[in-house]
Amino acid sequence: MLFRRASELIGLDIGSSSIKVVQLKEIEGNYTLTRFGMVSLAPEMIVDGTIMDSVRCVEILQNLIKDQSITSKDAVISLSGHSVIVKKVVLPQMTEDELAESIRWEAEQYIPFDINDVNMDFQILNTFADAEGKSQMNVLLAAVKKDKMTEYTSLVIEAGLKPVIVDIDAFALENMYCINYDVREDETIALINVGASLTNINILQGGTFAFTRDVSIGGNKYTETIQKDLGLSYDDAEKAKKGENVEGVDSFTLDPVIENVSNEIVSEITRSFGYFKTASGNEKIDKIMLGGGASKTKNFGNYLQERLETPVEMLNPFRKVQIPPEFDSTYINNAASMAAVVVGLGTRRLSDK
């Protein structure tokens, strides 16, 4: 269920600060945008990935679907955070059917939860011979806690939709990247999505999954710190974070606060890169592709590039997606940084694996 890649399903990204919806029409690998919308959520509605006010979330989702004139009921959603475990593991070579029979036993040593409390899926990435000539295979293993999956699928069902695929944010980022950018076999790319409460990090080697980690820090940290350090209301702190004018706030007082939070986020990204390099033996990441609403925070991209000494490019999830003229191009451009995950979800089809 986690890896299956439907005809024109609804991509639905339920985040801590907003709900986004997309529909893409595909013809021979080329995508056209047919529906796109997003609506902000009050900060207390979803807190650190936990749905605190499902009634209001359901109402907002229903109104969003209605406003976009979406008639399809089949939705693709995704999850991330501490309830999601993704591991690349090496196992003796076997058939997919054999692995399906043994996966729960194999997974127990990698999953830090009771195996009966998770839903699992796997994907065989490739096969190879080890130093002793034995046939091995790299397997991508994903597990999601059942209670977290139920929490989000129940919300979608209550809104009158059918969750036909449950994906993972990191994989949605990968799908978005692969339809919009040319993949080079000799290149290691880090996809980083700085959301409201989480930062998703997904590293691809030659376009193939190599490493992922979710970090529990994002744009909300800017807002909370600005509120606390400068004594502002939530709304004024949000405005200040976005670079809007707020009475009594100037760059002299604001910039150090923003830089401190940026330093926290970049330190976690640096730590994640260290984990990847240790596990893979690969010392070089060629480029960082940056997205997420908080990625537009003042100087964040430049700060990330300087600290990690790695080129940073802003992700454009609509780069190769045809945008019909009836869409407001300014709105689409402004929303692009926040649309990476939902566009990736919109590429999924029920026939995928």
Structure summarized in a few sentences:
Helices cover 35% and strands 30% of the residues. It has 353 residues and is an alpha/beta fold. The strands form 4 sheets. Strands 3-2-1-6-10 form a 5-stranded mixed sheet, with helices on both faces. It has a 5-stranded mixed sheet with strand order 13-12-11-14-15, sandwiched between helices. A 3-stranded antiparallel sheet has the order 7-9-8.
What distinguishing features does this structure have?
353 residues, alpha/beta, Nucleotidyltransferase, domain 5, five-stranded mixed β-sheet, 10 helices
How many β-strand runs?
A: 15
How much is the radius of gyration in Å? 20 Å
Q: What is the CATH topology classification name of the domain at 183-314?
A: Nucleotidyltransferase, domain 5
Structural class by secondary-structure content: alpha/beta
Could you give the distance between the termini?
9 Å
Known CATH architecture of the domain at 183-314: 2-Layer Sandwich
Structure report:
35% of the residues lie in helices and 30% in strands. It has 353 residues and is α/β, with parallel strands linked by helices. It has a domain at 183-314: Nucleotidyltransferase, domain 5 (2-Layer Sandwich), CATH 3.30.420.40. The strands form four sheets. Strands 3-2-1-6-10 form a five-stranded mixed β-sheet, sandwiched between helices. Strands 13-12-11-14-15 form a five-stranded mixed β-sheet, with helices on both faces. A three-stranded antiparallel β-sheet has the order 7-9-8.
